Amino acid sequence: MSLQVEVSDLRLTYGETVALDGVGFTLTGGKIYGLLGRNGSGKTSLLSVLGAFRRPGAGSVRIGGRPVFENAAVTRQTCLIREAGEASAIGTVNDALYFAEALRSTWDAAYAERLLDAFQIPRRKNVAALSLGKRSALGVVLGLASRAPVTMFDESYLGMDAPSRYAFYEELLADFMAHPRTVIMSTHLIEEVSSLFEEILIIDRGRLVLHEQSEALRGRGVSVTGPEEEVGRFVAGLTVLGDKRLGRTRSAMVYGELGEERRGKALAAGLELGPIAIQDLFVHLTARKTPDAGPGERS
Amino acid sequence: MFDDRSPIYRQIADKIKTDVLNGVLAGDEQVMSTNQYAAFYRINPATAAKAFQQLVDEGVLYKKRGIGMFVSPAARDLLREQRRKRFFTDVVDPMVAEAHAIGIPVTEIIERIGGHAREERA
């Protein structure tokens, strides 16, 4: 089952600080979505509102057509695993599982048991006494086994080491294919996880920068490398996100689809065209040198 | 057609084409499912599905409803024909350009290739 997530003109402020500044998008559901943004861009604020941990300041958030805040019918179907994994002083790992099961009709206890073994999480230990790695892993277990129609991981797996993270990615994919649902993952580890995403949302300074299919995004950026003058001529009029120079060689990062005709021209001019990794696109799309950046943010 | 964009689905499609060309996958043989590919490469199943769709569009694979994807009987000949067409532009022309850049005369290349041809006949 998949539920549509609709966010429109969402605003959230903490005192003077504007965390979300008119964010709007629609997720049709049944996909794995990647939510990318720099530190303090509003990722956690956005997920907190989607998970009904916070009330929207203005605008609306609807899941399956219904508002989420203080709406038990919706929150039973959503699951947000926060940054530190399962951090509540809830008692032992077994207690955490007991509560998770009580809260959700979709909970799969047998699957949770299997995951606990896979991540080697001690069942009788107090959650508060677990290492960061195990606490993150427990968060991931609770998120996966919840089978919630809308499951969100807010960098929950950051505390896990590389082998555990890869085990998580494999579990997530396998379980998603067996039980399709809406999964939203925020992350810093773009290179590592971007292949899991069907769609990508980038937010920056509380605003949505883009929402696109990840494969389309991969075809969106092109690096153009060659002699300085040739590259300059070729990229004139195109959106250039970044530049690198090595002697007389210039490599420009162009954003936007190049038509076959342009590609042909580039090759004829002896220019080299290459793909740009999503991580590089992300870095340039959220760089702090756009004209609208505040004076304090210019570098 | 030469293409420098390399989204994941394209890389998967290329891998399957290579398997067909090398005979690892035979005509009318079933290929692994989208989900198996997704799990193996640790990618979103929609991405794997896109690779399959591209191969169906190109006539390399065909779909049997409810069963899965199969290699078209004509796929290998089709791909060989495509690669043959590209052989001179993709392999020979750049080689000649490289030879020119480092000062190897074309006659020397021809001589070398002639050696290979004699080996083939022997």
Give an overview of the whole structure.
The complex is a heterodimer of chains A (299) and B (122). With 299 residues, chain A is an alpha/beta fold. Chain A is built from 11 helices and 14 strands. Chain A folds into 2 domains: 5-211, Rossmann fold, CATH 3.40.50.300; 219-297, Alpha-Beta Plaits (2-Layer Sandwich), CATH 3.30.70. Chain A is 33% helix and 29% strand. A 6-stranded mixed β-sheet of chain A has the order 6-7-8-3-9-10, with helices on both faces. Chain A has a 4-stranded antiparallel β-sheet with strand order 2-1-4-5, covered by helices on one side. Chain A has a 4-stranded antiparallel β-sheet with strand order 12-13-11-14, sandwiched between helices. The N and C termini of chain A lie far apart (47 Å). Chain B is mainly α. Chain B has 2 domains: 8-74, Arc Repressor Mutant, subunit A, CATH 1.10.10; 76-121. Chain B is built from 5 helices and 2 strands; from the N terminus they run αααββαα. A two-stranded antiparallel ribbon of chain B has the order 1-2. In chain B, β1 (61-64) and β2 (68-71) form a beta hairpin. The two termini of chain B are 36 Å apart. In chain B, 20% of the residues are buried. The A-B interface holds A 31-32, 166, 169-170, 173-174, 176-177, 195-198, 214-215, 218-219, 222, 263, 267, 272-275 and B 2, 4-9, 35, 38-39, 41-47, 50.
Distance between the termini of chain A: 47 Å
Q: Report the CATH topology name of the largest domain in chain B.
A: Arc Repressor Mutant, subunit A
Give the overall pLDDT of chain B as a whole number.
Answer: 89
Return the structural class of chain A.
Answer: alpha/beta
Shape verdict of chain B: elongated
Secondary-structure-derived class of chain B: mainly alpha
Q: What portion of the residues of chain B fall into strands of 2 or more residues?
A: 5-15%
| Mean pLDDT, all residues of chain A | 90
Largest interface: A-B, 24 and 18 residues
GO molecular function (chain A): ATP binding; ATP hydrolysis activity
Pfam family, one (chain A): ABC_tran
Organism (chain A): Spongiactinospora gelatinilytica
InterPro entries (chain A): AAA+_ATPase, ABC_transporter-like_ATP-bd, P-loop_NTPase
